[in-house]
Specification:
Layout (H helix, E strand, L loop, with lengths): L1 H18 L3 H25 L6 H30 L6 H8 L1 H68 L3 H12 L17 H4 L1
Helix pairs in contact: 1-2, 1-5, 2-3, 3-5, 4-5
Amino acid sequence: KEANINLLYVARDRRSALLATSTEVREKFLARADENLAAIRRLIDEARPGFVTEQGKANLAEIDRLWADYVRMGQDLHTRIAASRLDDRQELTRFLFTDFAAVANQIDDRMTALAAQKAELAKAASERTTELYASSRNTMLALVAGAMLLGVAIGTWMARRLTRQLGAEPHEATALAQRVAGGDLRATIRLREGDDAGIMAAL
């Protein structure tokens, strides 16, 4: 888009040079046109790596093809403006608004197409990023939920295994151990049916 704007600046500066009432003003506008022309080329070259589709490459190739004519015609126009009398603009005006304008408009159309394509690519990239984010978020939530379920399952398994090894609930085994440690050897031990390998059975 900046290149399109600079293309308008080049046209404005050339018209201003053509309509200038003094040589100094004319030279100032011609120099500004050259600066804006260089900025257009720089902007196109900077944007070039971002266009990887066939359509983008075709538009850039067409701009490159038209650019050579545009620059050649622009140099011819500059030379003719600089050499013309300040009060004789008719032939230069015709050239500026017909032959030269036709090439400038073609370049502008291609640049507009590239800007539109760049916007479409940015939109597509944004949509892909949003989809990737949603997918990653869902995967992460599934992993967290799975980890929680796995943690609960492991905790339940460990509690059952510990209870089986003890032969009773942990608080019952603790109470019995405290009574035995306190010297009470007459405590009754209630075993689970079929439990003959647990710690409580050993006591």
